[in-house]
Design a protein that fits this description.
- The chain has about 325 residues and is mainly α.
- Helix content is about 80%, strand content about 0%.
- The protein has one domain.
- It is globular.
- It comes from Rhizobium acidisoli.
- This is DMT family transporter.
Length: about 325
């Protein structure tokens, strides 16, 4: 159980790092849109996902219609739907305010997860929760300043979309863990593959609609390697690391840890995102950003210590199920 706990923690932290790479996407795709990037990324991820189930015959019995439909539904909630709402939030609410609202995800997920599973007494969660809240406020402190508000198109549209993104990701995290708990014999790699394939199929299905709405730049800028080579390289790279790696790691964490702890660990995505943004912008962090990252990390470390002490006290076992 001790080993399982640390595997789950490591997987959740890796998933947070993988998901944080989304913050640097707008800076590497040039004139192509985030929809173009998402198309390449999810199609490549889907192709990788196709290889996993068909590479070993002994796992073919897991590919039932029920499992496939459930995976496609989860892909719609957690990937296509989440992507569309996040992108819309960034367009209408600006690139600063939208991520600030998305910082609510681990807080909401932790509260709901602990309410459902009763992993820890609420008094034990107050301090790490307070640290995470303070850290998020410090990290996103510029969101509602005059400078941050300059990039706002329409708060009336952007904020509801950001809140919808929060709801979709929380829904996905809880539904995904419930689906894994109901399939104890299902290998995490196979379940991850089904979700990846579902995301690729859904993005391909969305392409004609998005192209008719001029959301994709590929038809105008060209599909050839000379024009879109950079998009293909970055899209494939992020597909392997952020999508395939992130989905696989999150499924391991979901199977190994209580939802409340996994949610606390995923908050480190914000810290990784800040660091990545600083690297992309080639600048040093402000004192407030440093303080925010430090407090966030402190909250995550404290959460891990509290859960470890609780779950491995005499007579306790790791709570990894409903």
């Amino acid at each position: 159980m001790d080993k399982l706990f640390y595997v789950g923690v490591s997987a959740a932290l890796f998933a947070a790092f993988a998901f944080s790479l989304n913050f640097v996407v707008p800076f590497i795709i040039g004139d192509y849109s985030t929809f173009d990037f998402a198309l390449i990324r999810h199609v490549v991820s889907g192709l990788v996902g196709l290889y996993i189930p068909f590479s070993e015959k002994r796992i073919m019995h897991h590919l039932t219609l029920r499992n496939c439909l459930q995976a496609i539904w989860l892909a719609f909630i957690g990937y296509v739907g989440y992507f569309l709402t996040v992108t819309g939030a960034a367009v209408f609410a600006g690139p600063v305010i939208a991520p600030a609202f998305l910082g609510l995800v681990p807080i909401v997920l932790m509260v709901i997860g602990n309410q459902r599973q009763g992993s820890l007494p609420w008094r034990s969660l107050m301090m790490p929760l307070a640290l995470v809240l303070v850290g998020l406020i410090l990290v996103n402190g510029t969101a509602f300043t005059a400078e941050g508000l300059n990039s706002v198109g329409s708060l009336w549209v952007g904020v509801p979309l950001a809140l919808a993104a929060v709801g979709l990701w929380v829904w996905f995290a809880l539904a995904n863990q419930a689906a894994l708990a109901a399939r104890p014999e299902m290998p995490s790699a196979v379940w991850s593959a089904l979700i990846l394939v579902g995301g690729g199929v859904l993005m391909l299905a969305f392409y004609p609609v998005g192209a008719a709405m001029d959301l994709f730049q590929l038809p105008a800028l060209g599909f050839g390697w000379s024009a879109a080579g950079n998009l293909y390289v970055w899209g494939a790279s992020f597909a392997l690391l952020a999508t395939v790696g992130g989905v696989w790691a999150w499924n391991i964490a979901s199977r190994s840890l209580p939802v409340a702890l996994a949610a606390q660990l995923i908050v480190s995505e914000t810290a990784f995102g800040v660091i990545g943004g600083l690297i992309v912008h080639a600048r040093w962090p402000t004192p407030i950003e440093v303080a925010g990252v430090v407090v966030l990390i402190a909250g995550v470390v404290l959460s891990v210590r509290i859960f470890y002490a609780r779950q491995f006290a005499p007579g306790k076992t790791l709570l990894a199920q409903e």
